[in-house]
Amino acid sequence: MPQQTQIQPIIGKVIPQPIVAEMSQSYLDYAMSVIISRALPDVRDGLKPVHRRILYAMWKMGLKPGAKFRKSATVVGETLGKYHPHGDSAVYDSLVRMAQTFSLRYPLIWGQGNFGSIDGDSAAAMRYTESKLNPIAEELLLDLEKDTVGFKDNYDGSHKEPEVLPAKIPNLLLNGTLGIAVGMATNIPPHNLSELIDGLIYLIDNPAASLEKLMAKIPGPDFPTGGLIFNTQDIQKAYATGRGGIVMRAKTEVVEAKQGDWQIVVTEIPFQINKTNLLEKIASLVKDKKIEGIKGLRDESDKDGLRIVIELKSAANPQKILNQLFKHTQLQETFHVNLVCLIDGLQPRVLSLKMALEEFIKHRQIIITRRAKFELAKAKARAHILDGLQIALANIDAIISAIKKSKDKEDAKINLSRQFKLSEAQALAILAMQLASLANLERLSIEKELKEKKSLIKELSVLLSSPQKILTTIKDELLAIKNKYQDARRTQIIPGAIDKFSPEDLIPNETAIVMITKDGYIKRLEPSSFKAQGRGGKGVIGLTTKEEDIVELFFAANTHSDVLLFTTRGKVFQLKAYDIPLASKTSRGQALVNFLEIESNEKVSTVFPLDDLKNYSHLVMVTGHGTIKKVDISAFANVRRSGLIAIKLKGSDELRWVKPSSGNDEVSLITAQGKSIRFTEKNLRPMGRNTAGVRGIRLRPGDEIVGMDVLTSAKDKNSKLLVISANGFGKMTKLTEYRLQGRGGSGIKTAGVTAKTGRLVSARVVNLEQLAADGIKGDLIISSEKGQVIRTTLKTIPTSGRPAQGVRVMRFKQPGDKVASVTLV
């Protein structure tokens, strides 16, 4: 009989399982593993497991800010070997990101060596780079040794690792994160530390705080790369729901190159945008002729910061090209907020801003409670030992006698415990006490330490019994961190047109002086920049211009005023006065092309502040060739960003003046050769915007209009015509010396124009009595072609007849200088 093979009994039991059910369960287990153990951060410390393990490994290695740098390969090896059993590249990539200043708002790791760049360059191999913890990373790890968090076994049970870090800083919102799990993802923007702490403190003091109140403290994300973000309403939606899109835009400026062409300079780009890819995209658009007008593209970035220069062709419109770049490239991008994180390390949830802050506060309450319990137990244990030492010092002779009578250490411990009613710990402490402790100072030291421990025990007991004191401790620690690490916001928030908070709510309404140069630079100054001087003074420097540039327009307006800007080509644009950059007297200002979509051959010729239009019905326009037109003011109610046509021009004519009228006023026109005409507005019928107008005055060859004004009958009686000539002469003449004439005539003489005085450059009607009745001093500010400015009162300028030449009002510092513009403040 053949020998039978003995079959081993089957251990366990085979259970038939449908393949669909098995795959579903296995995939669900995998998905949860990815969600919890890899992709999503914990709301408490804002870290994913890999980041937490790297920081903990560095902490255990002693790589604190004051330590020496160690090779990154050492950190990766320590993390892999003890805590994170995955690929070394995954660990190193995570370490690198925590060291990149363009990836994290507050980098947690201090890197030395090549850690990559905003161009997308990879970091050097881990064997070449070195790293240690940044000071702010310590705030995540402090108090780990005080039983503040739970510890769990590592992957093989040979070591312990923290389930979460104590985290004194709200790292989830502070640095943000990006993660893609299975079936869900997270994308949290970084924020400013000071703003977050202010929001947390406000929420602790006001648990029922509304989102609007919190946003007053935390207005929006703050990206490490700076840039601009738009629309407070979008930010509010993202904060309220945990989901939403926030528009980011690069920080740009249009500047003029030395050769006169325009450049677009980019100094900050949106968060998470690869600069190299951005440059390649712009180059591709230019090559494919999807964007025309760009002739050069340079990357001038260096260690001091990012700088991209886009050179434009001479005929290009800078604002239009910039808008095209925003539309077609990542100079404008949307950050899609998805505030998904783990609650208690297990449950993924979408949180609002307030919920995320509340979860952090809860975490800190638990940490401080556990820390206080640990410190209380430690203080009580030490106080217990000190009590025993005090008993020993008080009975030192008896203690020594009892020890001498004992046969060994164990017998001595028992004898001391029995005779002096000591605990085992106290008896052992006494037996370990050195003879030096018998010294008087040592006795006092023990008494002092016991007193301190009892005080600490009382303090910790009170803390643990009072939730309010725990919250106060949280606030104190947050304020200490704010004072230590606070910095300025990098990302500018633009409220947007639909934001309920208008810029006027934040900007004081005050008088401002605005200067515009011939070559198109504009700036706003405070009136106090110019002090009043006597007639004939030399003035002060009011503007630093580039070579051959001169100050052309000079006017006063309130900062809240709407300002209409009429160009030489007959177009009209609209700006708020506060949108004009505030600058110093000696700065050049900014180019108008940063604000207006004007052509290369187009200049702003007239600026008109619209402070109050209730008493006016029309705008009267006058060109350099003497053409005049009246348009209903309602035609300019909605001036679009790209501008509107204000008047149709003929040939080389240019629009020079625009002033309001009531429909029943008089018009005065003054020419450079000293001619003036005055006629009633009834001779001027209203026209549409896209019309050319009619003749206002008949000009001689070479003559042109230098001034116009709209007069009322009440103004006529006491008004005077003020004229200023190119060589700094001026005078005033009573308006009653100018008779009414018909529109279109040659006019009458208004000033003696000679080589000494030069041609007239400015003329306006003033009423000193009315100004005095209104409590207005009436200062005249005169600006020269070379930037010299003088401020003088109108009373210093004499009144003369029509043929008079006038007196010297301004003396020039530089030979050949001439009056460029005149304004009344």
Question: What does the model show?
Answer:
The protein is an alpha+beta fold. The strands form twelve sheets. Strands 26, 27, 29, 32 and 33 form a five-stranded mixed β-sheet that branches. It is elongated and about 135 Å long. 38% of the residues are buried.
Quickly describe the structure.
This protein is α+β, with helices and mostly antiparallel strands and 825 residues long. Helix content is 30%, strand content 25%.
Report the CATH superfamily of the largest domain.
DNA gyrase/topoisomerase IV, subunit A, C-terminal
- What CATH calls the topology of the largest domain is Neuraminidase
Q: Give the total of beta strands.
A: 42
CATH architectural type of the largest domain: 6 Propeller
Assembly state? single chain
Taken from the alpha-carbon principal axes, the silhouette is elongated
Poorly predicted tracts of residues: 497-501, 543-548
Structure class: alpha+beta
